[in-house]
Amino acid sequence: MNTNSLYVGSLITSVIGVALLLIGDFAGWYWGNWYVGVSEEGWINPYNHILMSPFLLVAIGLLAFCAYISYLGVNDKLSDYHANMGIFAALGAIGLQLFAFIGFAIVNIIDDNAWWPDVGFYGGVIGGALTLGLLYLAQQQRASLK
Q: Where is average pLDDT lowest: 32-41, 73-82, 96-105?
C-alpha cells in the first residue's frame, strides 16, 4: 500500500471527525417526571456546555492537527518527529473524548437521567481511531522504506 494513500485516508477521517464534532451533538440527556408533568432535556456540543466545551475544543484542535500532519504526509514534507506527534495527537483526542463522555455518563447515571452518545461522540472517537490507525500504519511503512 502506498504511504500517500494512508495519509489521504487519515486526512479524510480526521476532517470528518472534526466536522462531526463541530456540527453534531456530542451527547444528550433527558429527565422527566410524568406524575408532575415536568421534563427537561439537553444536548452537549462544543458551544453550549461550560464543563464539556474545553475537552471537546481541545479534541477538535488535536484532530485538526492530525489533519495538518496528514496533509504534510501527502505532500512528502513530513518529518519523523511530526509524524510521531500526529500519532500522539490522535491518541490524545480519543482519550479526551472518552474522558469527557465517561464523566457525562457518570453524572447522568447518578442523576438517574436517560442519556445517550450522539453523532459527535461517534464521529470524533471513530474518526480519531481511524486516523490513529492510518497514521500508525503510514509511520511503520515510512520506517520500513528507510
A: 32-41
